[in-house]
Amino acid sequence: MTIRLCQRASASCGACCGLYNSVDHSRGAVEAELWRRTRALARVPREEGAFRRAAAALAEDGPAPLFPSVRICPLLGFLDAAGERVGCLAHPLAAGGQDLRACGVYDVLTCEAFLCPSHAWLTEEEAQLCEAAALGWHLYGLVVTDVPFLRAVLGAVAARTGARVERRHLAREPFRAALARLLALKEELEPGSEGLFGAFKPGRDGEPVPRRIDYEALARETSPYDTILTCVGADPRSGNDLDRLEAEVRARLDACAEASAPGRGGARRPVTP
Ligand code: SF4
Ligand code: SF4
Predict the structure, then answer these.
(1) Same-domain status, 127 and 183
(2) DSSP string for residues in 43-84
(3) Is residue 174 part of a domain?
(4) 69 and 167 both lie in a single domain
(5) pLDDT tens per residue, range 61-98
(6) Full domain range(s) for residue 45
(7) How far is the CA of 89 from the centre of ligand 1 (A)?
(8) How many domains does the chain have?
């Protein structure tokens, strides 16, 4: 069964529509762009000619892409008044029954059929954990499209607490918040860092191939948190401070452990509901 990642009950993603492909991909900048499109398109008649013209105008005034070869669709915006759900404003469910997706950067078939590799690699349980962590649209999209990062974080937490992270554990707010803060490392990288797009590269056999930090060149030992750090692009050459990020990983893991077993240091103790 194919899992659903794009639009879940309390989570949404628009990464493959170019959500993060801007020089300034901070949450504030991305959010402002989504509102600009949402407000502009709300005034446009639901017909193809008008939508095409509006899309072209929005694209022309849009932010500069970080990767010019990756398309940015100007029809991605907020589906709700509160700005909590990101999604396609040209989808029939958002455009009064009209399918206006051909006015974007792909044809309708591509928009309809595309599923990013996370759909093949993530389990439904992992998807549920991402959703239950209540990350918000900006972070959810970054995490759900980076399977090695998510698995490395969950594995590191399990190693510290002595128990596999399960959905029921996230019902405890201190633990949920601590886990979300650990995952939020993805939102805190230096502007332009490739870590934001760290995700994974499919290898020849289709399995993800992780990036690599050149520890030899840095004359230091491989970090015990290497996978997490690799997935956030914590290589100095990508503009991030490896030592600072490593310290952050350690501190945020400590917080997860403490939240799982308050007052006992958390280490090697099971996370209990
Ligand atoms: S990147 Fe994946 S999860 Fe996100 S909207 Fe695209 S297909 Fe869906
Ligand atoms: S038209 Fe296609 S690419 Fe554009 S926002 Fe909609 S689904 Fe994404």
Answers:
(1) yes
(2) TS-SSHHHHHHHHHHHHHTSPPPSSTTS---TTEEESSTTS-
(3) yes
(4) no
(5) 998 887 777 899 999 999 999 999 999 999 999 999 99
(6) 7-115
(7) 15
(8) 2
128 shares its domain with 256: yes
Q: What is the pLDDT of residues 217-255, one digit of tens each?
A: 888 999 999 989 888 877 776 677 889 999 999 999 999
* Span 13-55, pLDDT tens digits: 999 999 988 888 889 999 999 999 999 999 999 999 999 999 9
Same domain, 58 and 160: no
- Ligand 1 pocket test, pick from 8, 13, 72, 79 with the greatest ligand atom count within 8 Å of Cβ, gives 13
110 within 8 A of 101, measured Cβ to Cβ: no
Query: Is 16 touching ligand 2 by the criterion CB < 6 Å?
Result: no
- 115: Cβ below 6 Å to ligand 1? yes
What the block records as the tokens of 114 is 């595309």
